[in-house]
Design a protein that fits this description.
Layout (H helix, E strand, L loop, with lengths): L1 H29 L12 H9 L4 H5 L8 H14 L3 H23 L9 H8 L5 H5 L4 H18 L5 H15 L8 H11 L5 H19 L13 H4 L1 H13 L7 H21 L5 H25 L13 H21 L3 H45 L3 H4 L8 H12 L10
Helix pairs in contact: 1-5, 1-6, 5-6, 5-8, 6-16, 8-9, 8-10, 8-15, 9-11, 10-11, 10-15, 13-14, 13-15, 14-15, 14-16, 15-16, 16-17
Length: about 425
């Protein structure tokens, strides 16, 4: 019996690890150890950090629409310890993704044969579609946000409710909110979980409401709009464009072609699965609630991001950076399809669910194969710029590192040189 169990378990583990190994190969072959775009905004904080006069207000300051207190803190500490080696930021992103897989694995383990779902989840979590986030250490903010949101929502929706789970969910909500702007959605989703779950004591609901309101009010204290970004009134002026943005955001994880239709189909499937599983008394609320909450976060993120970004055009929703969030939507769908397949109520339902499950994975794998080429493009584009950063002579190459504000490079590169950071560190 032991051998019979060992073989499938080993096979399952290998299937989970393959996407991770492939990703690590691509990252460490093609990442470039040089600051890019928003990373140049970290240089003044690095200078203060090196001078030992960094303040809480410096970390709290708004960056675009975000307050990235925790990601900046992590990046500054790593930069101080490594001489700002971007490779360590990239490595942290991989580590956060592995932690996300572990968190989801602990939840799927609660259903029978749930471990067989993990290879499919691993394919989505470590998809090459997210090439921008994998190669750009600055995107640590998104990985940290997604991990905190997922872990917090799972803690909150588990049954029976426990005080330590509630406290843990509160703390993770703070990390989520001050890592990426979409994190403010965590609080209303958590509130809905409390009302739908088994938290009979309303002191939990009241405490959550107070914590959520305080967190959101604090987030917007001193907040200022970004003049270079389009008006948020686009929702009312161009509702069709807004809907296109919304569905493209959800569908982008499975590739750019037909992303709008894929997003529409995904939302339909997600809704049908929930209705079917809710009507089937075999499936308890405690099994479904964590993954309903997981799906609500990317749906809410698509709605929220669309308000501020539809003015850029719906194609902006297809940016690879967003797919780390929209992946959660498809993971939620895969979970629902898996338990329908496992229930085996009718062959008709099983075959349809298995077909949809296979289509989702096929589209994601196809998109990953397509975007694998972007890793090489990244290397070829930024490697010459990295070399010129040392001499600061060829402005054409240097502009690649900060195309919107190229003057920042000439202003802030001397700071890096003074403190021996990035390309100027000893033994680089």
């Amino acid at each position: 019996m032991k051998n019979n169990k060992f073989i499938p378990t080993t096979l399952n583990t290998i299937m989970v690890l393959v996407p991770i190994i492939i990703l690590i190969y691509f990252i460490f072959r093609y990442y470039v150890d040089a600051p890019f775009l928003d990373q140049w905004s970290l240089v003044p904080l690095l200078e203060k950090y090196c001078r030992n006069n960094l303040s809480i207000n410096d970390l709290w300051a708004q960056h675009n629409e975000h307050r990235i207190f925790f990601p900046q803190l992590v990046m500054l500490l790593m930069a101080g310890a490594t001489g700002w080696n971007i490779g360590f930021e990239v490595g942290i992103n991989i580590l956060l993704a592995v932690c996300l897989l572990i968190v989801i694995a602990l939840q799927t383990h609660k259903i029978k044969d749930g471990h067989w779902l993990l290879p499919a989840i691993s394919i989505l979590i470590f998809s090459l579609v997210q090439w921008e986030n994998w190669l750009w250490g600055w995107q640590l903010q998104i990985f940290l946000n997604v991990l905190a949101v997922t872990a917090g929502l799972f803690l909150l929706s588990n049954d029976p409710p426990k005080r330590r789970n509630f406290i843990g969910a509160l703390l993770l909500g703070i990390v989520a909110s001050y890592s990426f702007a979409n994190g403010i959605l965590y609080w209303p989703i958590g509130f809905a979980i409390l009302l739908a779950g088994n938290y009979k004591k309303y002191n939990y609901v009241i405490l959550w409401g107070i914590a959520g309101i305080m967190s959101i009010v604090l987030y917007f204290y001193g907040y200022h709009s970004i003049s270079s970004h389009p008006s948020m009134l686009v929702l009312f002026r161009s509702p069709i464009e807004y809907l296109k943005y919304f569905f493209a955001y959800l569908g982008g994880a499975l590739g750019k072609p037909n992303a709008i239709l894929i997003g529409m189909g995904g939302l339909f499937i997600w809704s049908i699965c929930i209705v079917f599983l809710k009507l089937n008394q075999k499936f308890e609320k405690k099994t479904l609630l964590p993954f309903i909450a997981l799906g609500l976060y990317p749906i809410g993120s698509a709605l929220l991001t669309g308000i501020g970004r539809t003015g850029f055009g719906y194609n902006q929703a297809l940016a690879s950076r967003y797919t780390t969030i929209s992946n959660l939507f498809w993971i939620s769908i895969l979970f629902f399809l898996f338990i329908i397949i496992k229930s085996g109520k009718t062959k008709y339902q099983t075959y349809i669910s298995l077909f949809v499950f296979s289509i989702i994975l096929t589209l994601n794998l196809q998109a990953s194969f397509h975007y694998a080429g972007m890793f090489k493009v990244w290397k070829e584009w930024f490697e010459p710029a990295k070399k010129e950063l040392v001499s600061l002579k060829n402005q054409g190459f240097l502009n690649r590192l900060c195309p919107y504000e190229p003057n920042l490079i000439t202003e802030r590169a001397p700071i890096l040189k003074k403190y021996k950071l990035s390309v100027f560190r000893i033994g680089r």
